[in-house]
Structures are given as C-alpha cells and as structure tokens.
Amino acid sequence: MAKSIDPLLFEKTRRKNIIVRQALNNNKWIDHIYPPTSPEEVRQFVRLWKELQGVVLNVEIQDDITWRSQCGDTR
Q: To the nearest 10°, the Cα dihedral for 74, 17, 34, 2?
C-alpha cells in the first residue's frame, strides 16, 4: 500500500520492515529514506512529514499498520 500512497519515497526507503513505534520515535523514519532529489520526492516527503506530526500512538495497542486512501477509506 505504501507504494501507492507515496511511491517515490517508498522506492527510496532503506528499511521497509521497521515497526511504527520505532519509526516515529524521534522521527527515525527520516533516517530510513534516502534524501529526496526531485521536486515530486520533496513534495511527498513534506506531505508525509506533516501527516506524521499529528500521530499519537496508544501504548496499550500492538503496532499494526492500516493504510488509508486520501479520501479516508480503509484499505
């Protein structure tokens, strides 16, 4: 699913099996993406950064990834 949301960033990702808690801790997800080099990669990076700023994890729930489309449908 990540391929369809931000395909260019997905291709630049070094570590695709990191758990959510690890990735969000101190924005470590940034360390797992090769630097964006095109304008579209930068747009995808900034959009992802903004979306992740509001994420709050519930420590009582095990990590699970559910990708949602831009219109909010669960996939």
A: -20
4, 9, 10, 16 alpha-carbon torsion, rounded to 10°: -140
Q: Are 47 and 6 in contact (CB under 8 A)?
A: yes
6 CB burial (10 A radius; 0-12, 13-18, 19+): buried
Q: Is the pTM of this model over 0.90?
A: no
Note the pLDDT tens digit of each residue in 17-56.
Answer: 777 788 888 888 888 888 888 999 899 888 888 888 888 8
Element (H, E) at 60: none
Give the Cα separation of 44 and 41 in Å (integer).
5
How far is it, in rounded angstroms, from Cα 22 to Cα 28? 7
